[in-house]
Amino acid sequence: MPTLSGYMEVHLNKVQHLPSEADLHRFVLMVGHSFSDRIKFWSEVEVEHAFVEVEGGEETGEVAIEQAFVDLILHRRFNLRTGMVLVPVGIINERHEPPTFHGVERTMVDTVIVPTTWRDVGVGAFGDLGRGFSYRVYAVPGLDAAGFSADEGIAGGRQQGGRADTSDPGVTGRLEFRRAGLTAGASLWRGGAGFGLIRLDIETPAVAVSSLDARYRRGRHELRGQWSMVNISGAADLNRALQIHTGLSPNIASRLLGAYAEAATRVTPDSWSDEVVVFGRYEKFDTQNKMPAGYQPLQQFQRSAWVAGATYYPDPDVAFKIDFIQEHNKSSVVNAPWRMNVGVGWWF
Amino acid sequence: MKIMLFVLAVAVSSPQDPSPKPQDLKIIRVSAERFAYTPSEIVVDKGTTIEFHLTSEDTDHGFHIIDTDVNVRIPKRRRGETVVKYTADTVGRFIIECTRPCGAGHTAMRATLVVK
Predict the structure, then answer these.
(1) What does the alpha-carbon distance between residue B106 and residue B103 come to, in Å, rounded to a whole number?
(2) pLDDT surpasses 80 at B29
(3) Which residues in chain B are closer than 8 Å to A40, comparing Cβ atoms?
(4) In chain B, what residues touch A180 (CB-CB under 8 Å)?
(5) A190-226 exposure pattern, b = at least 16 Cβ within 10 A, e = fewer
(6) Average pLDDT in the A158-182 region?
(7) I need a labelling partner for A190 at 20 to 30 A (CA). Which of A28, A208, B8, B25 fits?
């Protein structure tokens, strides 16, 4: 018997100097099915921003398959998975149901450093190694470096499982440890990114994404943090080649660096079933952290932010959220805006 | 006559009694959270009666020991606990799986019960 579940999130976003926007940001349905105790299917279909329309060459929304895979359960330590899989990097990419994180929008680190939701067609293995350790490892198609940018890093290079070119593949994996309120993980994505540049006669760029994260909960308090780094080899050649091709240098960095630390505490009494959690977060998200020789960083993309907010849970699966974000950057010309977000997300 | 009564009393309290002795009852607390159980491996001796105390750190989850009658729902965070007993009378490795869709990693949310 197939199962149906999903999540939705509706946001009201206000950015300094811009009109506020009301947005059905995500409408996601998940369908699963067990063919047997050992063969499972899981899928996730998402509509972003309510509808899809092309305006001035830009799509206003997105309809996407974010997961569609089959698991073959063989052994506690070794099982197989193939299909559209989530890249197992960081906290949010695999665990992005709205009630599971604080803040109306996902962290900036999980937007411009680790480009969530990051997925692709792949094949790999997962299992429980015992003593609290588990792992996932997949082979996936590579990235398309022609889509990289100065402000959003590698996000535009994701192939996302649609006729993905496999000539320059990658491998990704995560080792996770859990014990008594603590979850810690180390993640890696490493692979080629040059299939879209074959005609540009440059050395094929390669990408390595490394990430460490941890969450710790004790009683009413929770701490979480993540450190993520992206290294792009051959970034100078890549910039020159794309400049010849498009007329503009994309100013792609050879290293992107992001990190955040967040503290949250439930302020409602233990006797209440409703919960109010307040949180504070500091983020650093620098997509121009290290430039290739001959290139200067665009300082407006060397960013950080303070975030403060609250989440109200009338039910553990329903989260009303509010947050205020003060961004900073190193530019003396481009001011970083403040933002205020209000939203509700739910899981069923 | 006294000797006969003593023999009868010993026979009535013989180890043939199938109900578990207090020392064979083991309380095991399992916490569920997307997408894992903690602990993820539970090891007991054959004949042990396990009293599982099941709680969740987020949404509701399932707790199904495959090939047994144990198949219960774990309530959402701070909505109480589910207590279920199971007598481990067969040696082997039993897979415990989540039967309530809980998100992106639902199909891999498993634990193992090892009966020695």
Answers:
(1) 5
(2) yes
(3) 107
(4) 38
(5) ebbbbbbbeebebebbbbebebebbbebeeeebbbbb
(6) 93
(7) A28
Min Cα distance B77 → chain A (Å) is 6
ipTM of the complex: 0.87
CA of B64 vs chain A CAs: smallest distance (Å): 11
> Least CA distance to A39: which residue of chain B?
B107
Proportion of chain A above pLDDT 90, given as a percent: 86
Cβ-proximal residues to A99 (8 Å cutoff; 6+ apart), any chain: A313, A316, A317, A318, A319, A345, A346, A347, B58, B59
B106 interfacial to chain A (CB closer than 8 Å): yes
- What is the pLDDT averaged over residues A305-323? 98
Nearby residues of A198 by Cβ (< 8 Å), 6 or more positions away? none
Instruction: Taking residues B82-88, report their average pLDDT.
Output: 97
**How close B12 gets to chain A, by Cα (Å)?**
43
Q: What whole-number distance in Å separates Cα of residue A304 and Cα of residue A258?
A: 9
Could you tell me the CA-to-CA distances from A263 to A217, A226, A278, A308, B102 in Å, in that order? 10, 12, 9, 10, 25
Whole-angstrom distance, CA of residue A242 vs CA of residue A146: 7
Any idea what DSSP says for residue B4?
A: H
- Is the CB of residue B73 less than 8 Å away from at least one CB of chain A? no
A 272-291: CB under 8 A from B? 273, 275
Which residue of B34, B59, B74 to mutate against A (max A Cβ within 10 Å)? B59
Q: What is the pTM of this model?
A: 0.90
